[in-house]
Amino acid sequence: MSDLLISNARPYGGDAVDLLVRDGVVTEIGRGLDAPDGVEVLDAGGHVLLPGFVDLHTHLREPGGEESEDVATGSAAAALGGYTAVFAMPNTDPVADTAVVVEHVRRRGEEVGLVDVHPVGAVTVGLEGVKMAELGTMARSRAQVRMFSDDGRCVHDPLVMRRALEYASALEVVIAQHAEDHRLTAGAQAHEGVVASRLGLAGWPATAEETIVARDCALAREAGAALHVCHVSSARTIDVLRAAKAAGVRVSAEVTPHHLLLTDAALTSYDPVHKVNPPLRTGADTRAMREALAEGVIDVVATDHAPHAAQYKDTEWAAARPGMLGLQTALSVVVHTMLEPGLLDWRGVARVLSERPAEIAGLPDQGRPIAEGEPANFALVDPDGAWTVRGAKLASRAANTPYEGMRLPATVVATVLRGRITTTQGEVRS
Amino acid sequence: MKHLLSVSDLDAAAATGVLDTADRLKQALLGREVRKLPTLRGRTVITMFYEDSTRTRVSFEIAGKWMSADTVNVSAKGSSVSKGESLRDTSLTLSAMGADCVIVRHPASGAAHRLAGWVDRDHATTGTHTSVVNAGDGTHEHPTQALLDAATLRDRLGGIAGRRIGIVGDVLHSRVARSNVLLLATLGADVVLVAPPTLLPTGVEEWPCRVAAELDAELPALDAVMMLRVQAERMHGSFFPSAREYAIGYGLSADRAALLPDHAVVLHPGPMVRGMEIAPSVADSPSAAILAQVSNGVHVRMAVLYHLLAGAPE
């Protein structure tokens, strides 16, 4: 636990204040605070102070995919992106479907210590969609798993999904669904539409997402269980979510930064850096995502940070693995697509990147208000710090960013985890 | 022209230029006892086929040989590809061996685009400026097929602008259809697609053509009809109930062919499934230009190699 004085920071973009942190907790907020002896001072330079971000959807690739990312490089990317907690998806090798694997991931996160790494457990053994994994054992393990998902694959069998939701409701954990009816997406390579038809890429129809979300909302309603919908990509899915929420279903939803900003128009180069699942869709879809996020029908932004080493991406389109980096660009994309057009203010940014994700996952010590007595988890943001994205300079082991060469607004200038500075000025502090 | 990856690389003038060169090469070879032109002597042309093909690969090989190029054929079977080598490494290897042209067929849409990007990016390292020709990539394009179809239509109809051309069958999975719609539209033809809705791509309404449901209603006004191949695996994908019902709705039977005007031309990119998409008597009738398509294919591919490797003639 650490002591720290943060001077001249603007919480949520408001008036400048100083914050004194003792043992990782904010003890005093005011003007002209003095640093007690031996307490480090972080000069916030009048930048915007937000609660540390929480990512419900990260692929850290460890164990088994260390050529693309590991807990250390992924944690560094997260901290540099302003994150203080990430949820590591279970599609590793071996799959995180037992207490042994989730405890290993949790421990690796603690050893690295840059960000709270919360393992997501698999819903079914081996992500096979057939036999329920030991959700209770994982939930009660040292890893304290609070979210389960077969992400990358859909829990397709309606009976398996029903049982998982029912079982999860007693554990007070959330089932996060990768909503994709694989019977409708056999061989799919791109959003089913004008661009894919011209490029000769087999289509991933929006209905494959919409129908699974509708089904799962019905199942969650019946089970009284908490359902989280991963990476919503289609405008039609939003209509389903809106209706389900109005009916009182315990459903939450995330959108990725790339589905807020990018469209399938980028596919004409056939460069698989733009290949992702669900696929980049149309401009009408990105507009609908932004509006739904502002309205709250979509609760949070989650990165779906998916590093892939060059050999998995520098191939023909069909052979490439789907996924793109996201942790270090998420805030900038949210500022560009939501804050700049006035769809969200800084309070809203804090809500979608920190508060709601912590709430959905049931984290008591993250996504908290910036107030006395609260844990000192912060992202300090320079709203005027535009920067040019270079994949090779990002902290991830892989470089598969779709924003290569793009100029994006806002820079994370420091991240604080329980009063300890994890990054400043784009450098990790070990 | 550096590569031929898509017919969208060609505007009307460039496409007409290739067709004119093909005509001249055809005339140049007509009177010759030895069918060989010295144009590409010393140039190396490699065909790299990741899918089975007889007519396209042989056609390119003959085109290269008649132009005196050194031609080498690589197939995915029995090469490093079967040992798991990436497409990028294979293409750079061939480029480093001095391939002036790589002709690629690949089951992935966009493979030729990727290949061209790789050999361009690394040409300083490989030491060779390699041109890439797309000989069919997935369900995307097959530009030389569209050029040879255009050459055949020009021969038979005296021109393409203003002619009405029907394309019938599995448009969804057909690279031949994509290339033909684009090229024929560029050359001023009026293109009509006829197919069951399950075999039309989402977004086809944005293509430069019209879509019709009823083949019989279109036939009397067509100057040419192009029958697409129906691949065997489509029969089991619930795209249509049965081969019989497909043939009844979309096959070019003798009765149906009689609805065409006398001057109309029947095309098929081959290989044909006789009795399903086309009746044997129609395929063998004088209105069919199917074998002319094959022989024009050699001249068109000679012209493409000529334009890529020797520069467009003045």
UniProtKB/TrEMBL annotation, chain A:
<keyword id="KW-0665">Pyrimidine biosynthesis</keyword>
<feature type="binding site">
    <location>
        <position position="178"/>
    </location>
    <ligand>
        <name>Zn(2+) 2</name>
    </ligand>
</feature>
<keyword id="KW-0479">Metal-binding</keyword>
<feature type="binding site">
    <location>
        <position position="91"/>
    </location>
    <ligand>
        <name>substrate</name>
    </ligand>
</feature>
<keyword id="KW-0378">Hydrolase</keyword>
<comment type="pathway">
    <text>Pyrimidine metabolism; UMP biosynthesis via de novo pathway; (S)-dihydroorotate from bicarbonate: step 3/3.</text>
</comment>
<protein>
    <recommendedName>
        <fullName>Dihydroorotase</fullName>
        <ecNumber>3.5.2.3</ecNumber>
    </recommendedName>
</protein>
<dbReference type="InterPro" id="IPR004722">
    <property type="entry name" value="DHOase"/>
</dbReference>
<dbReference type="InterPro" id="IPR024403">
    <property type="entry name" value="DHOase_cat"/>
</dbReference>
<dbReference type="InterPro" id="IPR032466">
    <property type="entry name" value="Metal_Hydrolase"/>
</dbReference>
<feature type="binding site">
    <location>
        <position position="59"/>
    </location>
    <ligand>
        <name>Zn(2+) 1</name>
    </ligand>
</feature>
<dbReference type="InterPro" id="IPR050138">
    <property type="entry name" value="DHOase/Allantoinase_Hydrolase"/>
</dbReference>
<feature type="binding site">
    <location>
        <position position="304"/>
    </location>
    <ligand>
        <name>Zn(2+) 1</name>
    </ligand>
</feature>
<feature type="binding site">
    <location>
        <position position="231"/>
    </location>
    <ligand>
        <name>Zn(2+) 2</name>
    </ligand>
</feature>
<feature type="binding site">
    <location>
        <begin position="59"/>
        <end position="61"/>
    </location>
    <ligand>
        <name>substrate</name>
    </ligand>
</feature>
<feature type="binding site">
    <location>
        <position position="308"/>
    </location>
    <ligand>
        <name>substrate</name>
    </ligand>
</feature>
<comment type="similarity">
    <text>Belongs to the metallo-dependent hydrolases superfamily. DHOase family. Class I DHOase subfamily.</text>
</comment>
<feature type="binding site">
    <location>
        <position position="151"/>
    </location>
    <ligand>
        <name>Zn(2+) 1</name>
    </ligand>
</feature>
<feature type="domain" description="Dihydroorotase catalytic">
    <location>
        <begin position="46"/>
        <end position="234"/>
    </location>
</feature>
<comment type="function">
    <text>Catalyzes the reversible cyclization of carbamoyl aspartate to dihydroorotate.</text>
</comment>
<dbReference type="InterPro" id="IPR011059">
    <property type="entry name" value="Metal-dep_hydrolase_composite"/>
</dbReference>
<dbReference type="GO" id="GO:0004151">
    <property type="term" value="F:dihydroorotase activity"/>
</dbReference>
UniProtKB/TrEMBL annotation, chain B:
<dbReference type="GO" id="GO:0004070">
    <property type="term" value="F:aspartate carbamoyltransferase activity"/>
</dbReference>
<comment type="subunit">
    <text>Heterododecamer (2C3:3R2) of six catalytic PyrB chains organized as two trimers (C3), and six regulatory PyrI chains organized as three dimers (R2).</text>
</comment>
<dbReference type="InterPro" id="IPR006130">
    <property type="entry name" value="Asp/Orn_carbamoylTrfase"/>
</dbReference>
<feature type="binding site">
    <location>
        <position position="271"/>
    </location>
    <ligand>
        <name>carbamoyl phosphate</name>
    </ligand>
</feature>
<feature type="binding site">
    <location>
        <position position="142"/>
    </location>
    <ligand>
        <name>carbamoyl phosphate</name>
    </ligand>
</feature>
<comment type="similarity">
    <text>Belongs to the aspartate/ornithine carbamoyltransferase superfamily. ATCase family.</text>
</comment>
<feature type="binding site">
    <location>
        <position position="55"/>
    </location>
    <ligand>
        <name>carbamoyl phosphate</name>
    </ligand>
</feature>
<comment type="pathway">
    <text>Pyrimidine metabolism; UMP biosynthesis via de novo pathway; (S)-dihydroorotate from bicarbonate: step 2/3.</text>
</comment>
<dbReference type="Pfam" id="PF00185">
    <property type="entry name" value="OTCace"/>
</dbReference>
<feature type="binding site">
    <location>
        <position position="83"/>
    </location>
    <ligand>
        <name>L-aspartate</name>
    </ligand>
</feature>
<feature type="domain" description="Aspartate/ornithine carbamoyltransferase carbamoyl-P binding">
    <location>
        <begin position="2"/>
        <end position="154"/>
    </location>
</feature>
<feature type="binding site">
    <location>
        <position position="229"/>
    </location>
    <ligand>
        <name>L-aspartate</name>
    </ligand>
</feature>
<feature type="domain" description="Aspartate/ornithine carbamoyltransferase Asp/Orn-binding">
    <location>
        <begin position="162"/>
        <end position="308"/>
    </location>
</feature>
<feature type="binding site">
    <location>
        <position position="270"/>
    </location>
    <ligand>
        <name>carbamoyl phosphate</name>
    </ligand>
</feature>
<dbReference type="InterPro" id="IPR036901">
    <property type="entry name" value="Asp/Orn_carbamoylTrfase_sf"/>
</dbReference>
<dbReference type="InterPro" id="IPR002082">
    <property type="entry name" value="Asp_carbamoyltransf"/>
</dbReference>
<feature type="binding site">
    <location>
        <position position="145"/>
    </location>
    <ligand>
        <name>carbamoyl phosphate</name>
    </ligand>
</feature>
<feature type="binding site">
    <location>
        <position position="175"/>
    </location>
    <ligand>
        <name>L-aspartate</name>
    </ligand>
</feature>
<keyword id="KW-0808">Transferase</keyword>
<feature type="binding site">
    <location>
        <position position="105"/>
    </location>
    <ligand>
        <name>carbamoyl phosphate</name>
    </ligand>
</feature>
<dbReference type="Pfam" id="PF02729">
    <property type="entry name" value="OTCace_N"/>
</dbReference>
<dbReference type="InterPro" id="IPR006131">
    <property type="entry name" value="Asp_carbamoyltransf_Asp/Orn-bd"/>
</dbReference>
